[in-house]
Amino acid sequence: MTASSTATPSAPDHRDPAVHPVTPDRLQWLEGELTRWQADGLLGPDAAQAIRGRYVASRRFTLARIVLTLGACFVGLGLVWLVASNLDVMAPLVRFLLMVAIWLGLVVASELLAARRSRAGDVASPVVGAARLLAALAFGAVVFQAAQSLQVPAYEPLLVGVWGLGALLWAYAVRGVASLVLAVGLLAFWFVWEVLSAGDGAFAVSTALASAALAMVSVGVLHLVLSRRGSLAAWRSMAAPWREVGAALALVALFVAALPYAWGEAQGSLALWLGLGLAVVLAGACFVEGDRVDRIEVGLAALAGAMTVGLSLWRFDESVSDTADLSTEALARAVLSVLAYLVVASGYAVLGGLRDNSRITWLATAALVVFVTVQAFAVFAPILSAAALFLVVGVVLLGTGVLADRGRRRLVSEAKEVLS
Amino acid sequence: MSVTTSRAVTVGAVVLAQLALVVVAVWAPLSARLTGEEIVLRVAPFDPVDPFRGAYVELSYPDLPDSSASSPETQEEQEALDAARGTAYVPLTRSGGVWLGGPVQRTPPAQGLYLRCDDSSWQLQCGIESWFLPQDEAAGLQGSLGTGTAVATVKVDGAGHAALVDVSAP
Description:
heterodimer; A: 420 residues; 2 strands; flat; B: 170 residues; alpha+beta; 3-stranded antiparallel sheet
């Protein structure tokens, strides 16, 4: 276990329950190893039993977890839309107090459930996570009801930002990963909306997405850095939402920048430049403090950001609204866009392997398929058939894979020579 | 302090912080409602639906300045105007039963009531542009406001924050 160790719980935190949930595959591997270690005389039966007793099999995506999460999302969004239905049978203040009562009730209920789970040692139960997610969603209903009761103008991005910030505080207070996923998503949505509402055009949108991606990946990696030092070991599980949402945003930003349409001036609001500056500072901190894989991860987000900004700055003299009239320059831009996307998406697929995180690998694969499909039908169709583009991209990927495997085989043979 | 007590204190502190965030999000209209003076402005309807808060009537104010009305003659004048856009103060004066807005100023008026607005976009935004109400009533109000005689009751505090309190069509 090399990189995969980054995904396992580190030294037990005293505030954590004594029993840790692990996937059945990992538990099966541990059982096999314990048996071998006992046979080799490395462990006694008591120690093996004590180690085995620390873990319980738990699938990440059980039916109960999926249904509970979906149910929390439906009820939470239902609460928000209950606000939207503007129940005029109740006075605005009564509606607000009702939403506050529901939210506080969910906060108390989720904490009581967490205390009960802790007492019972039932660490695999997904009910607490769903209740916490519901409380985070209900906080959004409180924000929107307050705004509606006071007639705050429609389409105000600040409200989404406040919801995201509140959900973020809640997520860290209770260490709720599902609540953190919601918070990170809302904050990303708020940032892009804020930039969009400043009306600075397509350049600002793609750059905002890339900046948000770099900042989020960096925050996630900083969680890993701090947790390795032991002071914030419990935050290790909070790294994944930042890193994965950040990776998704980096791929979306490059996707948007690669579209061959008329790009505006390189203008941005103060919010955009502040966001970009913050992202660069956070990335710099990761480069200084992180290990090799941390630097690869942040470097990949920075590379995606640089390519996004570069493509967004590549403007044509005339507006390109009809792909049938692709100029030579537009064609060169499209080819470079495909190459850039191949590099970044492949990088994320490799990173998924390095981090033992299959979600990032699948995300990169899906993004690459969608990107090539869109480019094939929307951009290259007049000059190259979709089949030809798929063949070219496929051959490039196969060639890269063969070269990578050749390098791996050479490393293995060199290692064997050294050992012999 | 036991783990349970410490946990309860943390969650309590976060809940208070979240409530403070709600107050921050709605501070301008809340302040206007609690401390503001009530004025009446003529109002005209516009359009409806916010995905998070439902149906509403978008309002425009014929007696407040129009941020897109000024049309400079030269490119330089246009650029200077665009650079100056942002926070805009609109002095208010009473005229009969309603209040009228004066020309946009870049600093708060020394005396009298005024609105603190933003003219960065095509429409002057003073925080009183949306009137949320049930879907069926929104459509009805939209029709009745078309007569041009409707008025909005607005509370304005000393810092120019405004809160829409009522919209009525005689």
